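Why should sequence recovery work at all? Because a backbone constrains its sequence more than one might expect. Tight turns favour small or flexible residues, buried strands favour hydrophobic ones, and helices have their own preferences. The token representation captures these environments compactly. In the example below, the structure is given first.
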């Protein structure tokens, strides 16, 4: 975790002392604002940065930090407006350009985000973050051929970036190219966050190969050992999907009982619909339709149709549903 989450008051005190000693240092001002953001004192951070922007009119970092403060406060439109201003005033600042594209992606304007990433890569060929942002968005949208190509381009330019290699492996698993994917994964015990993502992909290979008991053992062990919060969620949802494949609905629900991520709602819907808990299934489905992506909604509709009492026989098979759940797990995680 960030140092400020471990020693928030000490860090804030130190940042204030730095500003007192170097009041005209932009780095100190932005660093202090960053500490305030991490302490969720967003209004104080915004006030400090608004004052600084009047003095440091040629410093893109002040505008970017201000945009980040509005983002953390939840005012995404204002954050985007300020990133727009930063990109306009400082057209060759790759951080502002990439941050704007990331925010547009977060706001789910995916065509515009892809356009911005493409423009950034054209203007800043060595902007690694824009390349990652584009590749990850292509993967999220299920455009596997182009996502695969994007990760390969990253690996060619930056061969030491293992995250691109592991993301490529996840896409290969979606494409059912298991041997190629497994060849990209490490054999050592996982230690870093990237290692645990690779370990999750390995478990998904077991799951997609229909080696369910092996997958359950893999994800159960990983869930007990993974030290990272984000990666723990990936193991929880994958384990739940494996239990669903075995028709162990209560076990699946127990794993994701309190988990709130898009794919966990799909898995909960599956378990409730399959066991005839129609009222709770309907409630989950309404939530999914209001909040989720088109691919998740499509899968959810097929689940509802599959387990409806008046199923007309035109619903997708259990194998199709399982395969799509696995694909979503891979595309959302690695």
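From this structural description, the recovered sequence reads:
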């Amino acid at each position: 975790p960030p140092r400020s989450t471990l020693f928030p008051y000490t860090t804030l005190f130190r940042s204030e002392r730095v500003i007192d000693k170097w009041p005209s240092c932009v780095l100190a001002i932005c660093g202090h604002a960053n500490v305030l953001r991490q302490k969720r004192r967003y209004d104080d951070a915004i006030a400090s940065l608004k004052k600084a922007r009047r003095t440091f009119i040629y410093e893109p970092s002040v505008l970017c930090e201000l945009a980040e403060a509005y983002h953390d406060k939840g005012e995404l439109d204002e954050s985007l407006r300020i990133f727009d201003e930063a990109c306009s005033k400082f057209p060759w600042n790759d951080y502002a350009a990439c941050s704007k594209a990331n925010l547009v992606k977060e706001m789910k304007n995916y065509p515009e985000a892809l356009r911005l990433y493409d423009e950034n890569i054209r203007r800043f060929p060595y902007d690694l973050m824009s390349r990652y942002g584009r590749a990850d968005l292509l993967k999220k949208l299920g455009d596997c051929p182009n996502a695969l190509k994007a990760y390969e381009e990253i690996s060619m330019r930056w061969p030491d970036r293992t995250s691109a290699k592991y993301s490529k492996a996840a896409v290969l698993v979606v494409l059912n190219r298991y041997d190629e994917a497994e060849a990209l994964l490490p054999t050592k015990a996982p230690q870093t966050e990237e290692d645990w993502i690779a370990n999750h992909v390995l478990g998904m290979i077991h799951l997609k190969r229909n080696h369910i008991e092996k997958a359950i053992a893999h994800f159960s062990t990983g869930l007990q050992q993974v030290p990272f919060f984000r990666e723990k969620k990936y193991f929880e949802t994958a384990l739940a999907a494996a239990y669903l494949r075995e028709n162990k609905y209560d076990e699946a629900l127990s794993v994701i009982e309190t988990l709130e991520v898009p794919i966990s709602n799909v898995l909960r819907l599956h378990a409730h619909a399959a066991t005839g808990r129609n009222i709770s299934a309907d409630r989950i489905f309404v939530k999914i339709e209001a909040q989720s992506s088109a691919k998740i909604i499509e899968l959810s509709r097929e689940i509802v149709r599959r387990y409806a009492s008046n199923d007309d026989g035109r619903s997708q098979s259990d194998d199709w549903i399982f395969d799509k759940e696995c694909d979503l797990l891979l595309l959302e995680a690695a």
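A few observations help interpret the result. The chain is about 75% helix and 0% strand.
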